[in-house]
Target: O-antigen transporter
Amino acid sequence: MKRVDQVKNGIRLIKEKGFFHIIISSSLVKVISFISAMFLPRVLSKTDYGVLVYVDNIRNYFLMFNALGITNATLRYCVQEESEEEKRGVFLYSLRKGLIIDLILFIGSLIFFLCADFQFQSSRLYLVLMSALPILVFIYEDLQLYLRALFANREYSILSFSYSALMVIAQIVLAITSGILGIIGGRYIAVIISIVVAIVLLKSVEGKNKKFIYPSKDKQKQIFKFGVVMMLTNMSSYVMQLNETFILSWVLNDEEDLAVYKVAAYILTISLFVMQAIITFIFPYFIKHIDDKKWIWKNFKKLSAINFGGMLIIHIILIWCTPFIIWLLYGEKYYDAIPIMRILLVASFGQAVFRMLPGNILAGIGEEKFNLRVNIISMIVHFIIDYVCVSNYGLLGSAVALIIVYYFSGIIMILHLRNVCKKSQI
Model:
């Protein structure tokens, strides 16, 4: 009975803290994303979908520099501040600084899109039209993470779901009538409406208190520096996925191959959503215990054991159901993506079990520079392995390269987290 009572109390506690709001919201977001993944490849031709993948890949290289990562600092430093006025001051500083940076990046990216040569010439127009989107995305993300930093889990979940629903509905409806141009218009509409929703939700959380204490000059430098380091860390990790598409388009030079790989790679976002929701919930609590390494290591081990079992079951089911998933979402014309998707699921298991949890905890407790070093080395090694594998084995080679890098880099992160926690207890 004692064990049962402990479980009941644990469930009640995380319910009160808003864990189930985040899980339910994340689940609904993935259901909606399923709908998008099913319709866009069906609405567009294989060639047009390949061009969209190419355009998004180029745009995502620029999006990695968005506001120089200062949204990461919004979450970290707002959680650490004690008073509402100080939290609001950090948020306003990050919003102002990020907008200035993004205006400069907007001008630079626009010049590049107008002057550069692209593999598929139709992509220039689409890139120019999407060049202002990162500014709006930054505003939305900064508002979203500020809500999370205030532990407003209900409002955070409503906003996340609203954004995803609007994005999918707007893209699909306008893609049917206007193709890729409609998708671009749909993205602008979805982000703008989501910003309005975020402002309304934030007002309901903060009430009438509009006072703020702006961070000191030294604190501003810390916030900006943390944002840049986190940006570089996330960039070096994310760029591995972008490099896959770049290398595939460079070596294979085929729009349909890009479309097939994109279809297969989408399973990564589906398979990892539970882990992402858990990290969203637990991250602020690990930040609050930044000086209690014993607590951090103890709870990391608990979460890791639960995560391993849950991810193992999820990934085995997804590997078994891969043919059905392809048939349901994309149709028979994408059956050649089945073996690639299965190999990517093996990579996904390594990402979920070995990389995501320790990587985020290390960033939360001040080890973001170590993450940066690991990810930079991983990025370089991945580029080399990916090029060799794609040159010899085509699309399958790209998936194998991810497996190698995810597992080795994840194990290194876990060992470093253990060393950091053990040293502080001596």
Observations:
- Residues 232-426 form one domain.
